[in-house]
Amino acid sequence: MPRTILGKWSIVLIIIFILLFALFQILVASGQEVGDTFSSNLVLSIPWLAMVIAGILAFFTGIVSIIVKKERSIFVFLATGAGLFALIFVLGELIFPQ
∠ at Cα 64 (55, 9), nearest 5°? Predict the structure, then answer.
């Protein structure tokens, strides 16, 4: 288990990320449709944006706890990896939009 406050925050944020991802998938399965723009369906946009923010924050809090605070919990490393995945996904969408 994480020993530092930032390590614990990283774990909490990645749990929020996972829960929001599940909520997003449930909303899509229930019939919500994606529109032409990001804000065309706020029922899908708000959970997605909160999910991405939580993932990116989990990455940065995990990195700070690992480098500065010398956190060595495997859960923090996993949360940081998942947050890195979210960051790479968002950067890919911004750099190479469809």
Answer: 50
Could you read off the pLDDT of 77-95 as tens digits, one per residue?
999 999 999 999 999 999 9
pLDDT tens-digit series, residues 21-76: 999 999 999 998 888 887 888 999 999 999 999 999 999 999 999 999 999 999 99
- pTM score, whole prediction: 0.90
Q: Domain span at residue 50?
A: 5-95
Rounded CA gap, 47 and 62, in Å? 22
Q: Are 47 and 95 in contact (CB under 8 A)?
A: no
Q: Give the residue from 78, 26, 24 showing the smallest Cα distance to 50.
A: 24
d(CA 92, CA 97): 8
- When divided into structural domains, the chain yields a total of 1
